[in-house]
Structure formats: C-alpha cells, structure tokens
Write a structure and sequence with these properties.
368 residues; two-stranded antiparallel ribbon; 13 helices; 2% strand; disordered N terminus
Length: 368
C-alpha cells in the first residue's frame, strides 16, 4: 500500500507544483530559529533554548521532498546512484564549501588572537571538511567567548549535513532494493535505535558533539523516514485549512522557546510531524507566495553560513559596546542579509550546472 502510494502520488504530482510553499516558509523560520539559538547562546543569552529541534524539522522535510522528487525515478531505474549523488552534492556542497571557507578564515584569526593551539589543526580539519567528514582531535576551538571541542570545528552546523548525506544514501538504496516497501520496518528499527541512543546519551539531541555523535545516525534516520511516511499519506490525511497550518507552526515556535524536556519529546515525535502534514497541502499566491519562497531560498544559506558569520562579526565587527540582545539582533539581520545574495548565487550556479550536464541532472536540479 505504501509503495503504491509513493509511486501513485509522485506520478500524480509530476505535472503539478515543484515547491511546497508553506514548507518553504517553515524551513526559513526554522533556520532563523537555529541562528538565534546560536547567536544568543554565544552572547550569553538563553533565547529559544529548544530551537535545536528545528534540525529535526529539516530532516523530516528532507525525507518528504526527496520522496517527491526522486522515489519513483529510483524505483523505476531511471536515476542511478551517480546521477542521484551529483544532484544532491550540487544542491548541498557549493554553499557548504562557502561556509567552510569562511570558517577557515574566522578560525585562523580566532586561533591567532586567542593564542590557542588550534592553528595547526585548521588545515587537516579543512581537508576532512571538504568531504563533509568530522575531524576528531584533541584541539580546543575558540568561538566567541566559548572554547570547546567540535567534530566540525570550522563550521559547527555542518554536522547535520554529514547526517543528511548519510540519510540520502540510506534512502537511495532502500528505494532501489525494496521498491518503496518495508517503510514501517525502517522506521521501527530507527526508533528502537533512537531509544537506545537516548538511554546511553540521556538526550534525544545528539550528533553535534564528540560524546553524542553516534546519536545522529538514528536521529536522522528516524525523522527522515517519518518525512517519507508523511509524503505517502499527506494527500489522504493532510489538511487544507490555513488556520490549522498557521496554529501548528505557531505552536512549534512556542515549543522552541520553552525549556522543557517533556515538551521537546512531544514536539519531536508528535507536533513536528503534524506541522509538516498540516502544511504540505497549503498553497499561497501573490505576496504570501513570494515571502514563502524567499524564506525557503534563504533557509539553507543562512543555516550553513551563520556560524562563521558570527565568528567574523565577533572578531571584526567592533560590537563590544552594544548590549548582548542588540548584538544578537544586529548579527542576525546581517546574517539574513548576507544569506539572500548567497541564495541567488547558488541558484545561478545550479542553473549553470544543469545546463552543462545531462537531462536527468537538469530536471532534478530544477526540482531541488
């Protein structure tokens, strides 16, 4: 039934919209929430303490959108792994490399100014980073007033890109081998692994640090394939009510601000999937559509470059005289403004890549 639903829905939507505008808006709001979480924390403030859950929203929506774009082609043998890999790398890596370059620059000056011993580790961290791989070392890395160990020290949010690529790999071979079957088995195994990881880690939030890196594997797998499941069912069980969609997103933003472990569990396993389901069928037009598209466009560049932008502003922005709250807001505005041209440049680059590659790559780049 699920296999039929994936293929049937994908076929039905082949000639319909290629973007889910309400989900675009949620991606943008989630990216802004993550940025504020980091900027506030690095300035000694406790804003949106549970906004780390936005990353799980990204994983859910990734499973949803990739199923829409690729599942049928993979199942029918019309998209092999090299072509799929090119599409995903073309979508994710250009801006990732921009973030890595900015991270190299910011960390080079941070290490020099702090007299830290991390300078000799920048080059090997950059080499590992070019392949989106973690760099585990004993080096302590300065970011603002914080000095800590990071598996992705030059651009800490890149940890989620590593796990996104892992989920993409699992997704491709699951579609290829099972032809969209056994989805409940994948979700069940991922959930059991996630529960076990929670038992050892003490938190469902993991993947971003040395001690909790292993948590990222069941975390991304579970949420990604929940997104796949939602795609198979949203036309049947989704909503057409903009009021329900709006209220669900508003509740999600509230849960980001409330520092409660119990509420976080509710959000991750019930509210977050419901938000995606409630918004999947919602469309807009006019100004609202343009705003949703803009939020979707800036979401990835903002997420993947906001960390080194903070570092550079901290080093060279001369913002010491401002209050912490003012610094957070000013840095946030600057990061959003810089994300906009990066999003435009990324679109232009992908358009050129699609023009120089085969027709399959061209079509998929246009959809992603």
């Amino acid at each position: 039934m699920i296999a039929w639903s994936i293929c049937g829905t994908t076929h039905l939507l082949a000639s319909m919209k290629l973007r889910f505008s309400s989900l675009d808006a949620i991606r943008g709001l989630a990216a802004i929430a993550v940025m504020l979480l980091h900027y506030a924390g690095l300035n000694g403030l406790n804003w949106l303490p549970r906004a780390w859950m936005a990353v799980d929203i990204f994983f859910i929506m990734s499973g949803f959108v990739l199923t829409h774009s690729y599942a049928q082609k993979i199942a029918e043998g019309r998209l092999d792994f090299p072509a799929f890999g090119k599409v995903r790398l073309a979508r994710l890596m250009p801006l990732f490399l921009v973030g890595l370059l900015l991270g190299c620059l910011s960390m080079f000056y941070s290490c020099r100014l702090n007299g830290a011993s991390c300078a000799s580790n920048i080059m090997p961290a950059a080499v590992w980073g070019m392949f989106a791989l973690p760099y585990f070392s004993d080096a302590m890395w300065p970011v603002g007033v914080r000095i800590a160990q990071y598996p992705f020290p030059l651009n800490q949010p890149a940890w989620s890109l590593f796990f996104e690529l892992f989920a993409n790999l699992v997704f491709f071979y699951w579609i290829l081998i099972t032809k969209n079957r056994r989805l409940w088995l994948v979700i069940g195994l991922a959930l059991l692994s996630y529960v076990a990881a929670y038992y050892f880690n003490g938190s469902v939030s993991g993947g971003f640090g040395f001690s909790n890196f292993y948590v990222g594997f069941p975390r991304v797998t579970y949420h990604f394939f929940i997104g796949v499941l939602i795609y198979t069912q949203y036309r049947k069980y989704g909503f057409d009510s903009k009021i329900i969609a709006f209220v669900s997103v508003a509740l999600l933003m509230v849960t980001f601000a409330v520092d409660s472990s119990l509420l976080s569990m509710f959000t991750l396993f019930i509210l977050a999937p419901f938000v995606v389901l409630a918004n999947a069928r919602i469309t807009f037009d006019g100004y609202a559509e343009r705003m949703c598209t803009w939020l979707g466009d800036i979401s990835y560049p903002l997420y993947i470059v906001h960390w080194p932008i903070f570092q550079l502003l901290y080093l060279f922005g001369h913002l010491d005289g401002l209050t912490p709250a003012t610094r957070v807001l000013l840095m946030g505005v600057i990061a959003i403004v810089l994300a906009w041209p990066l999003a435009i440049a990324d679109k232009i680059l992908r358009a050129r890549l699609s023009g120089k590659s085969g027709s399959v790559l061209k079509v998929q780049l246009e959809k992603s």
